[in-house]
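Shapes recur. One chain:

:::
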Amino acid sequence: MLGCVIHGRGDLRVEELPVPEPGPGQALVAVRYGGVCGSDLHYLRHGGVGDFRLREPMLLGHEVVGTVLAYGTASPAGPAPGTAVAVHPATPCGACPECVRGRRTICRDTRYLGSAARFPHVQGGFAARVVVPADQLRPLPASLELRRAALAEPLAVALHAVHRAGDVAGRHVLVTGAGPIGCLVVAAARAAGATRVTVTDLLPAALEYARTAGADTVVRADDPDDPGWPAEADVAVEASGVAAGLETCLRLVRRGGVVVQLGMLPPGPSPFAGNLVVSREIELRGAFRFDAEFDEALRLLAARPALDGLVSAVVPVREAASAFALAADRSRSCKVLLDFGAP
């Protein structure tokens, strides 16, 4: 079978790999689509994500959907073979203080598909066949097809960020960054009852995708005279992963408002307008991955067929290099999927 393996910075290879066998408690899944994530691009460009550095070859990918093929022995009851499923990529330990307190997203010993956060690395899902814990399978709602379901993981990230912001019903939400995650924050905020969503970005094409997701107002981040700039917002979600985005959030959120840092900033210290946090009593909160929001994401995707418009391209796995190049060019793409073929 074919799989996408990252060997180091700038070294992505589509390789012939052996088909794995499911062991006890595991399921074998025929992957149909895998979404190219910003973290996958970071591994290719920089050899790591934030402080997580590659130390061995790793199968990329954590946004995967496909069909159940088989189970190993002693596996828990799960969707029958032939069922279309999405794969929840996280396996929290369940025993650390964070898990015990219900904060499974920040489990100190979690396993996450396609992540170099621990060593040996957790191999990912960009292969025609993958073995995953059987309890991480989620059957798709009847009205949800596999292509749109591939958005479940990034949408779950967006939903968790909105949950971290608190109650946004009836509020004005500002989102900095209109990449795939930022656009899905728009959809998540809308689903949570936000009455107005403003999105900023440098690229007109990205802002059009934000409109597709439901943004009321889009603003060119490099145009201070753009009439769309709000006087203030109730809540701000920083989804660009750059310090300038955080600066914008802190300056435009209302006094006593909430800013959620969702984008992963570059490694090392990042300057920010800390005095505003103090003098305006702004609450600055982090948002990392997700937990039960994955199931919520599948339900929302089933109810919002228009979100399929965020999938800008589907590329055969053999052309993974061009898929990654396209995904890295935000002037031409939003979410790019790898196609691993029918089972």
Observations:
- The first strand starts at residue 2 and ends at 8.
- The mean pLDDT is 95.
- The first helix runs from residue 38 to 46.
